[in-house]
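Morning run. Coffee first, then this:
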Amino acid sequence: MKCYRKRMHGFTLIELLVVISIISMLAGQLLPALSSAREKGREANCINNLHQIGIAIEIYYQDYSDYPPWTSCLYKSYLGTPKIFLCLTDLFHGEKGSGHNAYPEANDIPVAKMNPAPTDPSDPGLFQRNPEIEACSYIYEFNPCVCTWFTSSATAETILAADTNGDGKVTWKEAKMYQSNHGYGGKVPIVRCFWHYNNHNGKVLNLSFRNYNVYTSGPEWESTSY
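And here it is:
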């Protein structure tokens, strides 16, 4: 009697290449979707941060009838953790500020960390922030520093009207209040996050200063709000 040995068949090289190709195609389709989902989660976390900052600003306003000089000044009395100042999309974890290099003086980080350096590193407004907070991903647009973009583009009459305390300078807060009183109302942003725009070509997140709603826009919120 002849014995026949059962022959075991494995995958051929071509079959393996086909399987690898299929897996690669599936991975190529799934990974962008997973990346997008992760970014949506980070964006939701950022919106939550902005809402908490908005609540803290309102409580501060009720206490002092004014807005805080910097968001860092809300820690620890109004915000209990430094994590609220960090956007998860910010790969630098707040160490480089808002990521909007055009206005370094609006970054709520120590002057030594600002890159590029502010126009006037000796501006007194820079030293009103809370030194306990060394990292912040958000730009604060009601800060007490001289607002160079406003003074360089506005007329002498407009500058005089915006300079509410008559010291010959227009701070960011004065410039924003002027915008609010001349057409933009409560939509003027007080806190903004640029990291979703910078890293994922998303939209800028804005916290409006009156009702503390979060809305999206391009870098120039005046003309690109959604």
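Residues 106 and 147 are 9 Å apart (CA to CA). Good start to the day.
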